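seq as requested:
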Amino acid sequence: MEFKDIIKPLDANKADDKLKEKHIPILKVIEKHGNSKKDYIRVVVGKNAKHPNTLEHHIEWIELYARTKTLNTVKIGSVKFAPGTEPDAVFRLVNLGKYREFFALAYCNVHGLWQNCIEIRKELRLTAGCRREKCLQEGFGV
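struct tokens:
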């Protein structure tokens, strides 16, 4: 048995819009929240169209990964959900400025694995000693 047989990935390009709305994780950056001024990423599945949360059909877990500006991939965290629980997770970030993108995975026990990604773009300026070609190679639009 292979990992793909257990996780049952679904080709999102072949799924209809209604199925996508119920399964694709939506990521939202929350910068300097409240009095704490801390940064968070909120991941919600079924934000626009409610996902069923029954024993027979529910989101089992959400995982959040990030890619740093130095192109390292790190796992931010994961949350497991019991049937009947809304698939809504908030992850605290220690330093939002070190990340360039976030990638969320959500697993539905019926429809398999779903994913979504957001890119964080802050103004990037050339500095002394910066090679434009290297920045472009690494995906920075300068």
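The chain has three helices and seven strands.
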